[in-house]
Amino acid sequence: MQEGDTPHNGSRDIYELEFKDLANRQDEIRAEINKDLQYCKQAVPVKPGVYTCVLSPVVTGVFAHESFGHKSESDFMVGDETMKKEWTIGKVVGSPKLNIVDTGLIAGAGYVPFDDEGTKARKNYIVKNGVLSGRLHSCNTAMSLNEGLTGNARAVNFEYEPIVRMTTTYIEAGDQTKEELISSIEEGIYIDDVKHGSGMTTFTIAPNRAYMIRNGRIAEPVRISVITGNVMKTLHEIDGFSNEVEFFSFPLGGCGKMEQHPLSVGFGGPYIRVNGVNVQ
Amino acid sequence: MIRELYQHTIRETSLNITNSVIDSIMKKTIRKSGCRVYANRAIGVAGTFGDPTEKTWAEAEERLKDGIPYTFEPEKNKKRIRDLRQLNISDEEFIRESEDLLRILDLEYPDFIFSHKIKICETETLLKNDAGLDYVNYDKTFEFILLVKHRDSVNIFDSGLLRQGRTLQKKEFLEDARILLDAFKNEVSLPQNEKIPVIVEESMLLSKISESLNGEQIGFGTSLFCDKMNKTAFSPKLSIIQDRTEEKYHTPFFDTEGVTQDKDVCFLIKNGVIEKAYTDKTNAARFSMPLTGSASGDYDEVPSLSNIGLSVVPGNKTLKELIGGVPSIIVIMASGGDYTSSGDFATPVQMSYLTDGEKILGRLPEFYISGNLYDIFGDDFIGMSCDKTFMGERALVVRMNANC
Fold first, then answer.
1. Do B117 and A258 touch (CB under 8 A)?
2. What pTM, to 2 d.p., does this model score?
3. Does A37 contact B at CB distance below 8 Å?
4. Cα–Cα distance for residue pair B35/A21, rounded to 1 Å
5. Do A43 and B149 touch (CB under 8 A)?
6. Run of H or E including B99
7. CB-based contact A1:A10 (threshold 8 Å)
8. Could you report the per-residue pLDDT of B176-232, keeping only the tens digit for each?
9. Does A45 contact B340 at a Cβ distance shorter than 8 Å?
10. Which SS3 state, helix, strand or coil, does residue B124 take?
11. Does residue B388 carry a pLDDT above 70?
């Protein structure tokens, strides 16, 4: 779409296991288009800086996947003594309310009841109450690190070998409302939708729609190239979680790891508030 | 009714590298065939693995009932075979050479762990029909794709060593590796200039131009370039092409509709002027635009237009001449950044080196680069090198803001 001289690409991902559930969703799509049109008309360039950000559930899901999910894939630890020490189970890695889960048991693009080595899915806490509680395994990595299987050996298709991959990764809910998370922020940014993300030592999220937060309210839309932060610092900077988790699937995209792309995965989470995010 | 076969075959030997040694070998040969039938201004497509059978053709004919419109004549009476294969090495020899390379790296750089892949990939892409079209493209390359991690580092990986080519360039790869790994140990500071020359992989910066030159987007008025067609928008030094020449690995000289271009090149931006959108047959006809042969699609899909890879045309200066001794940044990893809808770009640079155009001076800390599309390829465009001094690739050099 284009309003004025700046175009905007919007999208709405709808993913259902039953074909009948795709029917009668026109209002949902119209609402999304109208939201995009307003954004396209009004968005202004953001002033780069460090902000407190509130992430919507879909952005939280991508953040969970990119910020810590990839670091939980244990293949990078095999044969590497430095990483084994760095990633000792029991290490405090985030704020005490932070719980990150990966599981193949949730309906959607990350539904993997048995992985590509035949291991049955289970609920895997990667982080529980801010403490490193587990990691994701294939048979090979579980054997190498003398840990249990988790159901995370996956190949993007028949052409490739199974490697350690996520399934559905999400952050668990807290006890606040979205409004409560926003109301205490004098100047911050609400990230509503996401184009893509990446995660190594630094996580990145390229927002597709974002808005300033001023005096505890959502204000004008802003155009942002990328938000980033150091993963291990940022996980300590999450100080608010809303009380409901939403799950998402990207039917046309997925996760990339080396040459295996795009692998179907699910995402999810509540609204979360994160301090000290670098916004460009 | 015209029958047309679009077929892609890949033969690959891939060495999986873990902890600086080969831990497994994967060999694969995969052929995918798409059968297309054209009749009554419609197309039917059916796909199969391996060679097609009469059953596959019958399925394609059955799909004609779906009424997928295709109002164009398939290409007729054209024949060309382009064979770019030069690499002649047995799998056993390839494995020996790779083991030797890893042994040298491990011996000379025991502080580093090397992982990921070394592979040989051979492709065959053909498009043939019973109206006399007969196009085949062959290619074969090796690829060294090694991730590098310092043994004391807590990063999943710290850097990468890459080289792809049609001859086994082990010696050249090792030379690059030694330069980069020696420089890795020497940490240097980011120069404090407001803007600094940056050598960066072109696809990262060209993504917005590729998106905005899409003929469908321009036709529907939703491209950043809608009001800039046939106007000077960029530096007069900048020309951008759709490149199907031998420079591009595993890129057929024809698109999925069998359209070709003179000398396998199509200029879209010439001397800073946006000359053409890229199109497939459908969008060229719909919007009365020149046909550029930019249809793509998987083996079993109806050809369609999607964003394409573009190339900056090299100038006549070497990297050393382009940089002129000014401290510059070679970006090795810059993951996760993007353009906004108005063309502002920013990304973190996770791994980079400082160079003067001749020597690698040291490893830089993590920082951000940013700039606007019209500046990056306007006043801040320095050039595309004519030489391939770095990892076997030409170097795109632009000035960008860099800050920690």
1. yes
2. 0.92
3. no
4. 33
5. no
6. helix B91-108
7. yes
8. 999 999 999 999 999 988 899 999 999 999 999 999 999 999 999 999 999 999 999
9. yes
10. strand
11. yes
Spatial contact of B297 and B193, defined as CB atoms under 8 Å apart: no
Alpha carbon distances (Å) from B279 to A130, B147, B221, B260, B292: 51, 37, 15, 12, 5
- What SS3 class is residue B68? coil
**CA closest to A84 among chain B residues:** B154
Residues 6 or more apart whose Cβ sits within 8 Å of residue B114: B17, B20, B102, B105, B106, B146, B147, B148, B161
- H/E run at residue B265: strand B265-270
Q: Which two tokens stand for residue B42?
A: 């419609």
Of B51, B45, B55, the C-alpha closest to B2 is B45
Indicate if the pLDDT at residue B255 is higher than 70. yes
Residue A1 has a pLDDT of 67
Q: Is residue A269 part of a domain?
A: yes
Q: Do the beta carbons of residue A133 and residue A127 sit within 8 Å?
A: yes
Place of tokens 């040969």: B29
What's the rounded Cα separation, in Å, for the pair B62 and A72?
48
Any domain includes A189: yes
Confidence of residue B308 (pLDDT cuts 50, 70, 90): confident
- Calculate how close chain A gets to B130, using CA atoms only, in Å: 31
Q: How far is CA A148 from the centre of its chain?
A: 25
Residues of chain A with confidence (pLDDT) below 70: 1-5
Structural domain containing residue A219? 46-279
Does residue A34 sit within a domain? no
Query: Which pLDDT score, from 0 to 100, does residue B194 have?
Result: 82
Q: Does residue B230 belong to the interface with chain A, where contact is any CB pair within 8 Å? A: no
Residue B248, judged by CB atoms within 10 A of its CB (0-12, 13-18, 19+), counts as middle
Residue A82 and residue B154: Cβ atoms within 8 Å?
yes
Contact (CB, 8 A) for A267 and A58: yes
Q: Among B80, B86, B172, B163, which residue's Cα sits nearest to residue B122?
A: B86
Residue of B nearest to A5 (CA): B224
Paired tokens of B325: 């001794």
Look up residue B275 and give its two tokens.
């000359």
Which is nearest to B4 in space by CA: B62, B48, B60, B69?
B60
First and final C-alpha spacing in chain B: 63
Q: Name chain A contacts of B233, Cβ cutoff 8 Å.
A: none
Q: d(Cα A192, Cα B330) in Å, to the nearest integer?
A: 34
Amino acid at A277: V
Determine the Cα–Cα distance for residues B211 and B282; give it in Å rounded to an integer. 18
d(CA B277, CA B288): 11
| Chain A residues within 8 A of B346 when measuring between CB atoms | 48, 225-226, 280
For chain A, the domain total comes to: 1
Strands (E), B90-158: 112-129, 133-150
In a domain, A25, yes or no: no
Chain B residues inside the 8 Å CB shell of A228:
336, 348, 368
Tokens 């679009």 sit on residue: B6
Between CA B122 and CA B14 the distance in angstroms is 11
Quote the pLDDT of residue B83. Answer: 98
Task: Tell me the C-alpha to C-alpha distance, in Å, between residue B225 and each of A127, A206, B143.
Answer: 46, 22, 36
Structure-token pair, residue B178 = 């030694």
Residue A92 CA to residue B118 CA, distance in Å, equals 37
pLDDT tens digit sequence for B99-110: 999 999 999 999
